[in-house]
Amino acid sequence: LQVLAYNRHTYGTAAQRLVITITPAPDGEPPYQGEFLVGNRNVEELLPAAARKMFLQGTAGVWERDDLHVINITSALDRGGRVPLPIEGRKEGVYVKVGSWGAFSPCLASAASPQSRFRCSLGQQPLASCYDTFAPSFAIRWCNLTLLQVWPSPTVPGPVWGSGVLEEEGDFQPPTEAPPQDLLPGYLVTLLVPLAVAALLCLLLGHLMCCRREGV
């Protein structure tokens, strides 16, 4: 992966080649995943390990779990967000997806309930029955909270490969035999139809040129 970065203050660019090795988690993907929108951060501010650890501490307070880990970090600009105005303190926003093996807490369930969505559509505060442990470091947009339950898909058995050596039982017999086809009708149609059309056109052209002349 070749990363091309630029300095937003000096507009200088730098390129670096990064080799990433992806290995699946030993226990698989966590079935319970929650995605939070952090409004007062940029994506590069949540990439360091210390910032992610601080965010997980705030998540543990509202999720009531200690087996949380960050699955994905995405800039809000990649989700259709607008570029912030060049005013001091404005941030792009970051989507952070967190996974756990435990169920969602009642606080998160109430914040993502249909009643809470309806209050958000009216411009009111969403339902949240717990204390916001993210504050004041992270400003969570609770109206954009998304809760997902990912169930493992059943594995389909793959094909069974043989040794690759044909057994010594005579000649190879194909599984299906192609029936003999009579190609003569197709050949005659392909050949005679264009000849007949050409003959008719010649007769018509000869009639028009020889029999339709003036005085004849």
UniProtKB/TrEMBL annotation:
<dbReference type="Pfam" id="PF20989">
    <property type="entry name" value="Sarcoglycan_2_C"/>
</dbReference>
<protein>
    <submittedName>
        <fullName>SGCA protein</fullName>
    </submittedName>
</protein>
<feature type="transmembrane region" description="Helical">
    <location>
        <begin position="184"/>
        <end position="206"/>
    </location>
</feature>
<feature type="domain" description="Sarcoglycan alpha/epsilon second">
    <location>
        <begin position="31"/>
        <end position="147"/>
    </location>
</feature>
<keyword id="KW-1133">Transmembrane helix</keyword>
<dbReference type="InterPro" id="IPR048347">
    <property type="entry name" value="Sarcoglycan_C"/>
</dbReference>
<keyword id="KW-0812">Transmembrane</keyword>
<keyword id="KW-0472">Membrane</keyword>
<dbReference type="InterPro" id="IPR008908">
    <property type="entry name" value="Sarcoglycan_alpha/epsilon"/>
</dbReference>
<dbReference type="GO" id="GO:0016012">
    <property type="term" value="C:sarcoglycan complex"/>
</dbReference>
